[in-house]
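Team,

Forwarding the record for the chain on the shared tracking sheet. I've put the sequence and predicted structure together so nobody has to dig through attachments.
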Amino acid sequence: MKNLSFLTLFLFWGLWGALYAQVEPNAGTWKTWFISSGKAYRLSAPKVGKEEVSQVLALQKNLSPEQLKQITYWNAGAPGYRWQNMMAKTWMTDAAKHGITANMLLSVAIYDATIAAWDTKYAYNRPRPYEVDKRVQVYAPKPASPSYPCEHSVAAGVAVTVFAHFFPALADSVKKMAQQAMESRVAAGLAFPSDTQAGFELGKKIAEIEIKHTANYLNNTPWDGKMPEKPGLWRGRYAMMPHAGKSKTIALDSGSQFRPLAPPDFAKEMEELRNYKQTFSSIANAFFYANEPFWDEVLNQKIFEYNLHLNAPRAARMYALSAIGYYDGFIACWDAKFAYWGIRPDQYDPNFKPLLIHTPPFPGYPSGHAAVSSVTAELYAYFFPTEAAWFRSKAQEVAESRFQGGIHFRSDNEVALDLGKKVAGVIIEKAKIDGAEMIRNETNTQPKKDTKTSQNRK
C-alpha cells in the first residue's frame, strides 16, 4: 500500500506518454557523423525467449522506493539527458587538455549510436515487454518505438566509454550509473534484459570507434612561450591552447575558413570602456554569463517544452549539432585569436581595472563567449524557428556581458557574433541534408527502403 501513490503516478505517466510520444521510423537512415551509416552497425536479430518475461516480472514483483526513484531519475529527458548534464559539469575542469573533445564526442557518439539503434529497431520490430505480457506493469511513459535495442542503454554505453576514456577517475562511478539506468528500463517494463545489454554494447562499440577516429583532431601542442614581437599585442606568461585553431574541424573546412580581418586600433574603444557607467543590471549581466552554463540549460528546457525528450533520435540530433557548433566555433575563434594576438583592455591600459578581475589567459579578439553563443543561438533558431529572435537576443546579451565585464572591446564581440553566424550556417546546411528534415508520416511504422546513408559531411 505504501507504494500505491508511486504506482498511480507511473501508470498516469504511461498513459500520457502513449498519447504524446513521437516516433521516427526512418531515423535509421539519417546521416551519421563519424560512422559510415546506421545500417552498417545493424545488430543480429534478438533471441525470443519466455524466460526474459519472467525476469521482468520477477524484478517488478517487489519494487522498492529506491528502484522507483531510479526509474523516475533515468526516465527524465531524452536518453542522453542525464549524461549531457554530467558532461556539462565535468568537461570545463579539463578544457585545456581534452575536455572540449569529450564534450563533443559524447553528443555525437550518442547521436550516431542512436541512429544505428533505430536501424536495428525497425529491422526487427521487437515489441516491448508490456506488449508481450499483460502482467508486466508500465512505470514510465510508453515509448512509441520497438524494444530492441534499448535506446537509454545505447546512451549509457556511449557515456561509460567516453567518460572512462577522458576522465578515468570517474570510470567506476559512470559504470554503476549505467547499470542503474539499464536496470531501470527493465524494472519500468519498457525493455528486456537483452535489449539493454545489446544497446549498451552498441553504444560502447560506436564510442570506441569514434574516440579512435577523432584521436588527433584537437591540436594541443604545448606553448613554447614565443609571441609576436610587434608591440600592442596580447602578452601573458601562459597562453591557453595557442595551437587549437589548427585543429581538425567537423563541419568547417578548417578553423581559418571564416577568419575575420585583423583587429582595429582599440584607442576609441578603450575610451568607451573607461567612460562606461556600470549599473546594477550591467554588473549582474557580466557576472551571470561569466559563470552560467546558459545554453546547455536552454536546450534542455526547449527539448522538454516541445516534448522532444520523447523523440530520442531528434533530441540526440539537437545535442550533437549543438556540440559540433561549440567545437567548430571554438576552433574558428581560437584560429583568429592566435592569428592576431589581440590585446586585452587591461593590457592596453594598465590603469584600467575590469569588473571581472581575472582576465582569461589568451588573446581577446574575437570573444570566445560571443562566438560560441552566436553559433548556438543560430542553431537553436534552426531547431525552434518561432523563438529565433529570443535566442539571438540572448547571444547579443552574452556578448555585451563581456564588454560590461571589462575584458573585451566592443569589436571583439561584434566580430565574434558575425563569425558565429557563419560557422552555424555551414552546420545548418549540412543538417538540412541529413534526412531528418523529410516530412514524417506518423502513421508509417516502417522506414523507407533503399535509402542510402553515408558520411558525406565535408
